[in-house]
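Worked example

This section walks through a single chain of length 164. The input is the sequence exactly as stored; nothing has been trimmed or padded.
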Amino acid sequence: MTVFDIPIGALNGGPAELARYRGKALLVVNVASRCGLTPQYAGLQALADTYADRGLVVLGVPCNQFAGQEPGSAAEISDFCQVNYGVTFPLTEKIDVNGPERHPLYTTLVDAPDADGHTGDVRWNFEKFLVTPDGTVAARFAPTVEPAADELRIAIEKALPTTA
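Given that input, the structure is written out below as tokens.
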């Protein structure tokens, strides 16, 4: 089983259908609207815009586990993202990324190490996981790694499918 086989809901209801992204690179990011890192939404949207035609999908995963920084309803989260950052990339339902209620998506992701060797629990909002077109978790990036960071862009370039 890969990330693409895991059921998760879409933010505005129904299934997110991750299987439709099989064959594309997927950047999975736990997001929050009231965090000091929230401005990363702009950079994530820029990545989505830049690489969409080459086979990258940015997937925002709202989570309220870090200091209650994503308290809103699905409609409030959606409105916030669209109004403030023009987000067009898909957003999932709000989930837990750590603890006993950790969603299976994150159970699959958290064993990947970041550049410092960190594995396990997600440390904060905007931690990033890069998944290859075949569903392998290729890289993990700390929350403070900006979407425009060279290390993230280089990893994305390597993970992109040979044909989008």
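What to look for: The longest strand covers residues 25-31.
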